[in-house]
Structures are given as structure tokens and as C-alpha cells.
Amino acid sequence: MKISTRGRYGLKAMVDIAVNSREDNCVSLKSIAERTGISENYLEQLIAPLKKAQLVKSIRGAQGGYILNKSPEDISVGDVLRAVEGPLELVECLSKSESCGSGDCESCVTKGVWAKLSDSVSETADNIYLAELVEK
What we know:
The protein has 6 helices and 2 strands; from the N terminus they run αααββααα. It has 136 residues and is mainly alpha-helical.
């Protein structure tokens, strides 16, 4: 499994928001872009699924921007990756039983291996929280 730039940059943006925002202080996409080196256009594409997953919320107005919708202690790396990447399965046949590529997925002898590996990745991602990354 290879995490795409969507996942890497989405997590980087979330850490930036966690570090730089408070309930009374929003973070603009422009400021995130300046600190992280991620283009504003790309950040706009990443913020939409993060808002949809209710991980961030937007504040309108001249001093508007983005803040976390939950505490950093309540947002896991897995939450962020799933919001911007989709399921964390290593192979498609774990999320779609008909897309095994070689016939009957239910009798595939390697499916269990991929499921265990995917579960390990998910468990690890779900046990690392933004709060830990903010501390660093």
C-alpha cells in the first residue's frame, strides 16, 4: 500500500490546523499553504472531504478559515486518511467481493493475508492521534 499525496498532504494540513487554530482563531488556506508548501488549489481539494467527514469546519467572514471540528485527541490518522483516501484496504477485493480478478474471491487463499495486513494498517492508523503529532 502506498499512501498518495492526498493522504500525506491531508494529514500535514490537519496537523497544521491543529497547531495553528483555536476556537477564536481560524486558519486560512493561504496560511496553511505558506507553512506547508502545499498549493492553495490542492488544499481546497483536500479540505472538501475533510469537511464532509466532519473533521474540520469552516468559518465565514473576513477573519474566517478552518478549525478542527473535534479535539485533536479525538481525530486519528486513520480518520484523516479514510476521509481523503477512502478505505485503507491493501487490495480491492477486500472492499468489493466481485473485483478479485481471478474468479471467486471467497475461495481465494490469499485474501486472508491481505485482510490481516489491512487490519494491522488500520489498527495502527486508528491508534495515532493528531494530538500526538501536535506535540512533536
